[in-house]
């Protein structure tokens, strides 16, 4: 029995340490690495099978960024001679003497040789330490490209880079007698964003959107496969997917696992977006093929089963845990127009990503079903369920667009952004539902003229206003509106009557009651969205000379002058001026545009 145990133990050791299939339990620091050392890397070129490729160290770039070094390597083997560096290789572990030195993470576009930068494993392990301490996010840098003089680097390393055509000289010094510094355009390898459910027009429009927050290339995919996850084979070199949308629409960032210790995972060797503490679904992935390109070759892959979550997105790596799962936000988008289409999908719950992803999904739904150029009238109804509230936040409005873009989308994204980033309390969104009703008509009516029954009025008197509208390609329409002169208006003063659309009303409100735009509580913020001006309403404002104030988001109109004087001398903030006005809103069948003003004069009974 003892001999059998010895044989089994010996077989395990052989399996662990044999050839390139070895799992490197030890690590090697950059101080131990020298030019010319050879080793191997591990990644998936096809399916889920991890393959090896050969590695030769070209040198070390000292103090690359944030006082970390960068290991330069040349990769050969497999398809690399044909493809060069492949987008999706980010995180591929690299070993020397069966010791893990780091992850393939940086490279050059248009380079005929597969020469890459390797993020040292020491820098990546720091991310696990951050995760364990749950420290606050480190702000992302603006540019991950290192463009500085290489004069301080090892001359042999510089010579090798020059021989591969990977350096160029700073043109600023081309007419100078001083020594010309070399510029090194070494950037993070592109992260393929694999999407499904999006049409070509949508992908074209959202590419710049994601270009602002990370290095992504967009490709269509068939979506999740049905095979169960094999966690035993999920090891360094395996393809990994970070899901951000799933369902009828899906999007996943594809990379490679660098390190696994139990349920702790390190991958990519560079950030996805570098948002620090995060909570994103982590899934297995299958590589279907490699799309070779002179610019950037890419792994065409699709996500598999969700097996955990990504908890850190830092400069040198992403970190995650197997067996922990994140809650996503169920979303439903109904398009009612030339086609009636419904999309059901989920997006990650993140104050930065959620608004962008909802915008991406809604734009796709609109562009896939409706025309992009020409007259479009759209009615939007948005329900946002927020944890702890019985009723959803409901925003309803109508818009008109004649251009190639859907400007109303901003009105969907803004409340989601404000809720997730509000200063009052942590807001957890439980679900989002959007209904968009679209017609191919110009439904605009201009406020052409207003006429009052009497320009000389008394306090409390009823005044009739005739509003003349000019709908597009139709005859004039007349809207009668009755208003009452305020009882406390000053005899001998004047009253201003403003008839306008929603946009003009908002601009006037910003000057007359700026405190409305500085809510002092979470519920006031919600009230600001829900009670916003409707674009199909005529807004009638009656302004008098009485003054008031807004204090902590609440209005106190028509205050005595003595009280206003006291508040103006107060040593406490929170009070802003409020011009006294009465507001009346008249719903119409049109989208209202324009503004007209007339003055009324109050009789002086004295």
From TrEMBL:
Signal peptide extent: 1-24
A Pfam family recorded for this sequence: Peptidase_S55
Organism per entry: Candidatus Scalindua brodae
Keywords in alphabetical order: Signal
Lineage, top ranks: Bacteria, Pseudomonadati, Planctomycetota, Candidatus Brocadiia, Candidatus Brocadiales
Official protein name in the record: Peptidase S55 domain-containing protein
All residue ranges annotated as the Peptidase S55 domain in the record: 1-140
Xref: InterPro entries: Peptidase_S55
Transmembrane feature ranges: none
